Amino acid sequence: MLPELSKLIEVQELDRVIQEVTEELERLPEELKTEAAALEDLQAQQAAHLQEMENLKGQRRDTEAETAQMEDGIKKSRARLMEIKSNIEYKAMIKEIAFKEDQRDKQETRVLEIMEQLEAQKRALGEVAEQIQERQAALAQRSAEVAAAVKQLKQRLAGLEQQRKKLRKVVPAQLLKRYEFIRQRRNGTAIAPVSEGVCFGCHMNILPQQFIDLQKGVEILQCPHCQRILYWQEEEAAAEGEAPQVQP
What we know:
Helix content: over 70%
Distance between the termini: 26 Å
Oligomer: single chain
Number of helices: 5
Radius of gyration: 40 Å
CATH architecture of the largest domain: Orthogonal Bundle
Strand order of the largest sheet: 3-2-1-4
Mean pLDDT: 92
Largest sheet: 4 strands, mixed
Order of helices and strands: HHHEEEHEH
């Protein structure tokens, strides 16, 4: 294998690892955003429960005030009842008092319903508050873990970039230019192995003569189908033990 091709394979491996580290650096903050959004949803639920409790408390105050007014009206009607002498007026007043008592009873029932709703809201609020506390603790712990992971990844990325910079210096500029051109158009893979005459980049057969030339290892060849730079996989496997490894 040509030395420049061997180095270019190492460059591609470095680029692959750098891409993985970069994607992980992008993913971790997004993961935190998702967890923070879940916390915000719980806080929104908490605010909704608090608002509903305030609404119910207002309804309870209004209903109790109306009930008190009705009770006062009933007392006054009963007082007037003692002064009525006409049988017809007496029956009418009794009917009126019965109606007012019925309305008062309904209001009292409504107060009980509101109190039950308040208790339900209070329980739900307690559950949400507990979930918020747990989520805040988990988010704080995860934030610390992510911060540590990001720091390590950045250090690793800096080391990889330095390796890449040194390695690229020993690859001819024109070959690097061709590599970058193909890499941008082939989803980050500019170099592909060939085994038994098949390009592993596009899984198409290359020409028999091209495969023979590839095995000779005297020139840089490209796949006629996907344009990736080719190397003979068997030769690379034989030399794998001698090739420098990408630093973790």
